[in-house]
């Protein structure tokens, strides 16, 4: 009986923490209104680093070149590709004056290091305002540059955007990938809203080049081959210099992985960088995950034993209500409402997979850039 009482009161604490995360922390983004923006048409350098992405580049460059924006260049970085990526770059460059090519050759000190290639591209950019996306990402509108750049100001020198994944009907994996993307975006947007920005995604990210030089670029984590986006933001972003952009015309989209094996490998790379976040961010993220796990374990255990089951059931309903409201409003903002329909199932699968990835990463290090 004593054990069940301890489990019950532990469950109460867990539910309170989860309600605070979903209702208060995530609610800072979910229930917020759009931030005010400027209408200045700042010159922008769009930067794309590509390694063996010839086919993707052929698809996305036409969309980038059609952006409705007065002054921008596209900096294309060929990171020692083995295919005809460079030739594709050159073909487009002969037809469009605002394309700049940076051809990076491997050197022994930075062999296969994307951060080295990106550093060269950033230094070669003509303008101070930099906008990043990946070689397999496509802006969903011709207002992408305008929307993202509108959040720059004298104070805001870092802009966090949203990189979505294309929807595939009747695919549980696709729903899982987009749910995880929604949850991650809800977290980094929310933390930024309360003045604790901790990450951004390279699929849709903007910052001033001055911020890059202030932190000496990627030098502090150059040996960690992943994290050119989140580790940089974790170091450079703060409450005063960071803004978020989530208007639908500002989204980029890309094709998600289509097999669990490929997605698992991708998430291993992403999760491995979290070990290098600042302690306060690691603590807050770990607390959220641990209480997620305990919510399910303790809740199911107490229901099976029927110990004070009306109170347990009430706490479960309360947590789900706050969770659905918070993630529901976030999903509406980010155009991911359909993922909410399978929320409990997707949450359980994601918890199990994240635990599996954590254990796997302790045993062996994941591979990074192609």
UniProtKB/TrEMBL annotation:
Chain segments annotated as transmembrane: 6-31, 339-359
Keyword annotations from UniProtKB, A to Z: Glycosyltransferase, Membrane, Transferase, Transmembrane, Transmembrane helix
Domain called Glycosyltransferase 2-like: residue spans: 45-171
Single GO molecular function: glycosyltransferase activity
InterPro entries from the UniProt entry: Glyco_trans_2-like, Nucleotide-diphossugar_trans
Domain of life assignment: Bacteria
Gene3D superfamilies: Spore Coat Polysaccharide Biosynthesis Protein SpsA, Chain A
Protein family per UniProt: Belongs to the glycosyltransferase 2 family.
PANTHER family xrefs: POLY-BETA-1,6-N-ACETYL-D-GLUCOSAMINE SYNTHASE
Official protein name in the record: Cellulose synthase/poly-beta-1,6-N-acetylglucosamine synthase-like glycosyltransferase
């Amino acid at each position: 009986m004593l054990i069940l009482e301890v489990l019950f009161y532990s469950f109460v604490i867990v539910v309170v923490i989860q309600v605070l995360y979903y209702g208060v922390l995530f609610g800072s983004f979910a229930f917020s209104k759009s931030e005010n923006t400027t209408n200045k048409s700042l010159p922008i350098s769009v930067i794309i680093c590509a390694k063996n992405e010839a086919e993707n580049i052929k698809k996305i460059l036409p969309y980038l070149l059609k952006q409705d924006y007065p002054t921008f260049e596209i900096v294309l970085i060929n990171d020692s590709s083995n295919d005809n990526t460079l030739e594709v770059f050159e073909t487009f460059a002969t037809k469009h004056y605002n394309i700049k090519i940076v051809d990076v050759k491997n050197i022994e000190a930075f062999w296969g290091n994307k951060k080295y290639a990106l550093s060269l591209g950033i230094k070669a950019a003509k303008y101070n305002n930099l906008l990043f996306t990946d070689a397999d990402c496509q802006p969903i509108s011709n207002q992408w540059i305008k929307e993202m750049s509108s959040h720059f100001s004298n104070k805001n020198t870092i802009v966090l955007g949203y990189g979505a994944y294309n929807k595939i009907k009747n695919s549980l994996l696709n729903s899982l990938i987009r749910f995880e993307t929604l949850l991650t975006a809800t977290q980094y947007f929310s933390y930024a809203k309360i003045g604790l920005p901790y990450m951004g995604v390279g699929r849709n990210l903007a910052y001033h080049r001055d911020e890059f030089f202030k932190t000496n670029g990627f030098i502090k984590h150059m040996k960690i081959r992943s994290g050119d986006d989140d580790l940089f933001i974790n170091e450079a972003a703060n409450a005063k210099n960071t803004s978020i952009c989530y208007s639908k015309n500002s989204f980029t989209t890309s094709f998600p992985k289509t097999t669990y094996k490929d997605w698992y490998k991708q998430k291993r790379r992403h999760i491995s960088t979290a070990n290098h976040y600042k302690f306060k961010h690691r603590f807050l993220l770990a607390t959220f995950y641990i209480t997620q796990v305990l919510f399910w374990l303790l809740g199911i255990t107490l229901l099976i034993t029927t110990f004070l089951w009306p109170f347990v059931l009430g706490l479960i309903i309360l947590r789900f209500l706050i969770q659905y409201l918070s993630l529901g409003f976030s999903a509406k903002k980010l155009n991911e409402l359909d993922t909410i329909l399978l929320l409990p199932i997707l949450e359980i699968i994601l918890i199990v997979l994240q635990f599996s990835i954590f254990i796997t990463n302790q045993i062996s290090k994941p591979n990074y850039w192609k």
